[in-house]
Structure formats: C-alpha cells, structure tokens
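seq:
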Amino acid sequence: MPIAPAPTPWAFPPHSTWDPDDDLVALGADLEPGTLVTAYGLGLFPMPVTLDAEEHLGWFSPVERGVLPLDGLRVSRSLRRSVRDFEIRVDTAFDEVMAACGSPDRPDGWITGEFRQAYGRLHRLGWAHSVEAWRDGRLAGGLYGVAVGGLFAGESMFHRERDASKVALVALVDLLRDEHADRRVLDVQWQTPHLASLGVVRRPRAEYLESLRRCVDLPPPAAFRLDD
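struct:
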C-alpha cells in the first residue's frame, strides 16, 4: 500500500465556500506529498496560474469535471488493432513519462521542474503512477496520474508513436476494472474534444465530489500497490 506522507500544515477551504462558478478554488500552499494527497482526496488538483502578472500555485476543482466512466471508453476498430502492437508496463519509467508530458515543445505546457520533482516524490511513496506503452524496447507513449483509494486522477499523457497514449489509456481502464470497478473514479480534470471522442463526459462538481466521497476508502488497484 502507499506510504503515508507527513501531514500537510495547510488547510484547504471547505467545499461549502467554493465559488460555484469558478474552477479555481485556492492559491498558495506547497507541493509536498501530504499536501497533494490531501488535495486529491478533497477533489482538488494543482496547476500554476498567473494573476496580475504574478505566478501562483493554484488549486482547481472544475465546475464541470471531466470523468471517463470505466464502461464508457470508446475503442475504435483501429485502436483495438493498435493495442496488440504495444507492450504495457506500469511504473517502470515514471520520470521519463513525466519528462515527456512536460516537454517544452508541447503547447500550453505547465509541467515545470518543480512539478516533476513533486510528483517524483509522490511516485516513490506509491501514490503517483505511470502506465506506459512500449514497442521494440522503446517508450512509445504513456500517461501518469495519482491514485488515492478508488480515485485515479489522470494528469497528462503523451505519444511518440501513433495511438500509443490511447493504448496506455485502454490499459489503465483495464487495470481499474476490478471487483471495485463500480465505485472507482477515473478523473481527467476537464473534458476536451479529443477526450470526449474517447468517452469522457462532464460531471457537475457536486456529483463528482459525491462519487469521490464514496470511493476514497477503497484499496488502490493491485497494479498500483507497493506490496505487489
């Protein structure tokens, strides 16, 4: 099981105070493991945000949350064929996956060195994970995210070969389909047109938080447990 981090010294605003029309909930705090684990359990995730020409650490909970129902993933015929072309590995190249997701060549990049270090620490404690698509001994694509109980909060994905990131997503959904699948939550933050084409739907914040409340006490999937 994940190693419990030191408690965070920060207190996040209670749900009742969140602005119902604003995705941004709070500013400040830090990226220490205890802060991150606490935040994800509350339905928050961090991203840099610029306000009044100054950069801050922002904590977000989208008013309309992007969620991929485990029985709603759309796998096209061509993607189904691609699945057979890759080898799936879990947590064998976490740092490389994060580096690829945070490449400065990507548009709208936000994964700074500070974020890479923070999630690397979280990974070593057993909370952050990568699902990787390999071919011919080469990392072709993958994704990473944070697992807190029955929540998997997907953070980012990348590909170096066609369909490789989608294949990693298919593998992730398979990993989450265990005896607790009906309560697990696969969160992708916001719905984009690309993610919508894969089956991602929008859930109102209150509905998302209720599903989170029901799933955080679950054990993580077997593939993400340190003792496995």
